[in-house]
Amino acid sequence: MSAATGEAAGRRVEEILDRLAAAGDQQAVATAEELVRVLMDFYGAGLARAVELLAAQAHDPDRPAAGPLAELLDDQLVTGLLVLHELHPEDLTARVERAVRQVPGASVAAFDAASGMLQVRVESSGCGCSGSSDGTREAIAEVVAVFAPEVASVQLAPPGPKEPALLQIGVRPGLVPAETR
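Above: the chain's sequence. Below: its structure in token form.
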């Protein structure tokens, strides 16, 4: 079985419904749309119950803090389903943070929920390459689209100021500090 995404599944459903509409049988189209709605309601109810049960376990003092819910919320397929069904237990800002953490070296620089604009800071690889910034932005945008489709745009923030290198001053080899003479 191939890995499914919410976007790919949505496109496939639309293609099938379009084929039915092209065949000219409006009753078949209406029936297919109703079937999709019923299945969405069914799967949504099941997912809601699973999240409810896992959340209750996560609050159990005898379980580790992260628990199984955290693992599910880090999974792109599960998160895509929870977001699709509006069942994700985290708010938008938390989902954005979780998505950006999926990309090594990336962190949220700024996020405006009202406009959907996200700025992400990416640690420099030190190679001085600028050609990979578009690829990095696209990779971040793809992950964010799964976790937080409400985000309208992803921009790379300029790198922050570099920490000054710590210069350690010591005694040159062969010299004896003054207090030991």
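The beta strands are 106-112, 117-122, 153-156.
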